């Protein structure tokens, strides 16, 4: 079969990213402009600034990618773009860029769900096998999903309040850490101990998650200690939080493994970059003799390569969009 080259664009939040992906599993090139240094000044993503930065950067990122790969746009087979979920103004820039390329070069346009992109980031690391359980742990989502086959999603559980990445970011803020909080909590936690007693999230057998009680517990604890004039051991608090949050995710994953009896697990989303989480899930899947997929670190957080990987299956099904494609900020998995 002929090789398929997809130009992929991701701009759902604060990264302007483009990639050329071959056959859904090989990255020919990836170019990403991150806006973290700008949003860091405000302690989180400012949507208006994000869309403005995407507009400023989108052509530079494309130019960089084409120069780096020596690829010509006329040689791509399709152009794929994240259509949601995400920030409307941010999504719009990527979508408009993709439409222009699709129109000018007469190439099919493929709309990709951002969360599905995170799942297919795994295909860039190793071959996906089904049926599989996908654990999604990102800034906006926490889900357990049963996948009977490619693009067949059955949601087993989700968060009732905050996503796990959101909890990392909010706890980081009360510890005066910079945005994005997850990697900074992880760094602090490395030198800490689990000395703090914190609320344990929903201790039940459901496959849903809840992190807001844990988050509020930490916010209250920090405020109380400040009022009493006590010092907070930030390393210990970061370590206590990280372990409780991750252990909860791993506990729910184990419930799902027992219920579904799958022999494949894949992990997706920004929090899958966390070493403690990677180690705990590796340990759990070894116990059950399960084939585990976790994306390489550079494909855990938002990037266009994962969008190119997910788009490949839509290309094979000829599941194309037209130039009326619009951002879908609240798009769900199905
Ligand atoms: O998947 P992602 O890049 O964006 C969304 O689609 O939401 O995830 C971003 C989230 C942020 O909340 C960030 O703090 C978290 O992933 N994150 C981490 C780590 N790296 C990124 N959380 C914990 N440990 C990390 N090493
Ligand atoms: Zn993401």
Write the layout of secondary structure elements.
Layout: E1 5-10, E2 15-22, E3 26-34, H1 36-39, H2 47-69, E4 78-84, H3 88-105, E5 109-113, H4 114-120, E6 132-137, E7 142-147, E8 153-158, H5 164-174, H6 181-189, H7 212-227, H8 234-260, E9 264-268, H9 275-287, E10 291-293, H10 304-316
Helix pairs in contact: 2-3, 4-10, 5-6, 5-7, 5-8, 6-8, 8-9
Overview of this protein structure:
It is built from ten helices and ten strands. The protein is of the alpha/beta class and 334 residues long. The chain has two domains: 135 residues, 2-Layer Sandwich (Nucleotidyltransferase, domain 5), CATH 3.30.420.40; 166 residues, 2-Layer Sandwich (Nucleotidyltransferase, domain 5), CATH 3.30.420.40. It has a five-stranded mixed β-sheet with strand order 3-2-1-4-5, sandwiched between helices. Strand 4, helix 3 and strand 5 form a beta-alpha-beta unit. Helix 5 packs across helix 6. The longest helix has 27 residues. The model has no long low-confidence stretch (mean pLDDT 96). The structure holds 5'-O-[(R)-(carboxyoxy)(hydroxy)phosphoryl]adenosine (KG4) and zinc ion. 5'-O-[(R)-(carboxyoxy)(hydroxy)phosphoryl]adenosine binds next to helix 5 and helix 6. 5'-O-[(R)-(carboxyoxy)(hydroxy)phosphoryl]adenosine (KG4) binds next to helix 5 and helix 6.
Index terms:
binds 5'-O-[(R)-(carboxyoxy)(hydroxy)phosphoryl]adenosine, Nucleotidyltransferase, domain 5, binds zinc ion, 334 residues, alpha/beta, five-stranded mixed β-sheet, 10 strands, 18% strand
Question: What is the highest CATH level, the class of the largest domain?
Answer: Alpha Beta
What is the annotated CATH architecture of the largest domain?
2-Layer Sandwich
Task: Give the count of helical stretches.
Answer: 10
Radius of gyration: 20 Å
Task: State the major sheet.
Answer: 5 strands, mixed
* Shape designation: globular
Task: Please give the number of β-strands.
Answer: 10
Bound molecules: 5'-O-[(R)-(carboxyoxy)(hydroxy)phosphoryl]adenosine, zinc ion
Please tell me the total number of domains: 2
Task: Give the helix/strand class.
Answer: alpha/beta
